[in-house]
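Please predict the structure of the following assembly.
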Amino acid sequence: MLKLLREVFRTGEATHKYPFAPIKVAKDFRGKPEHDSAQCIACAACTIACPPNAIAMQTDVAAGTRTWSISYGRCIFCGRCEESCPTGAIKLTADFELAVARKEDLTKTAVFTLARCPSCGRSVASAKEVAYVALLLGGAEASAEEAERLRLLVSTCPECKRKHDVEQVMRLDIERQMENR
Amino acid sequence: MNAFTSPDDLVVKPNGLSMSDDVTRMKGLLLKNIKRSAYVYRVDCGGCNGCEIEIFAAITPLFDAERFGIKVVASPRHADILLFTGAVTRAMRMPALRAYEAAPEPKIVVSYGACGCSGGIFHDLYCVWGGTDKIVPVDVYIPGCPPTPPATIYGFAVALGLLDQKLKAETYVEAEGEAVPLAHPAIPYNLRVLLEREARQMAGYRQGRDIVEEFLSLLEADDRTSVEARVGRLIGGETDPRRAEIFSRLQAVFTQALVGGVS
Ligand code: SF4
Ligand code: SF4
Ligand code: SF4
């Protein structure tokens, strides 16, 4: 009996004080994915990586917007969105206090504008993504003229790009060059 | 004409189960001044059992949900709170509805885990209904896959009205002229790709990114010593041999790029 009591006192209180005191979570704990929308380029890498489709993208061509959304209720906290994000816009945090009474409160959305193809006016990608890709292709060091050329190149839709290629090839006048050879 | 026009028509809407005003009032009272233990009955609607393990972890001495009077009972007839886990498989729909009917009014329904909230990882399976709220009205959702014991306790505190929910629906709208700058503009993009690729191959995407960020900030540092000396110092101070190895590999990639040029 005394031995048992001694053991009890030696062990002390094992129960965590939570929720009356904050609880320390483990290092690299995967909690609520926090989306820094200002850093997001709406590239949809996370949408494709997300195993349960907790992250979704909706494109509204008429309004010229692309809407990113996450449902914390469906998220399985795997961290693949964080792994795949090229700009580090989405990161898993230590926040686990996600319980809600209204299901709507489990979603976060971010609305981005679409860039239009300079030739046909169709939308291909979000404006931020186009600007980011132009930067990646060397737009950071380029002159203003070169940067504008890059922006045009990146924001042209694949169909117009093909058309422009054909036009360029036609201008080369291949037939005459072949005859001359 | 086919009677079923969309898959939605196959879902039984909880119309028959809608709460009368009386029950709503009683539930409000129960939530407001529950002055006794809250008895919980667990309804497993076909999850992976991860959630069950965490529920039992939450009633171990370490988290001790019983100090708030939360007790797990063996019959729905004793329950105040029904805890639905799992994505509601076809086979479990009727048993779940029977458990719901068997519990005395007023009862609180808690949807537990990603599966319960919306079907989670199983949401598009052919054999699931995709969430507790497809069959019964839900009062509180506890997300997580599975929710950790502290998240469980927080969820119950929200259900019993002891704590307020923190999460709110948010909508962000892109600001005019918003642009994302390139990270590490001082380092050639191709070199950064080489370094990131090496670190991710060695340590995986998540830790690889952390390690390469550390290395890149070292390269960028406004420091008069050579890169070799800086990396040498970093490796010297590193207690984890795996990280030291990765840093030396990154340095090799960097030196190789300097000698051979970055294509
Ligand atoms: S953590 Fe996993 S499940 Fe959650 S949003 Fe990211 S990719 Fe999707
Ligand atoms: S991967 Fe990152 S940048 Fe791309 S849409 Fe997702 S959060 Fe935004
Ligand atoms: S939420 Fe996750 S842990 Fe819980 S039953 Fe579903 S898959 Fe398993």
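Chain A has a mean pLDDT of 88. The CA atoms of residues 35 and 90 of chain A lie 4 Å apart.
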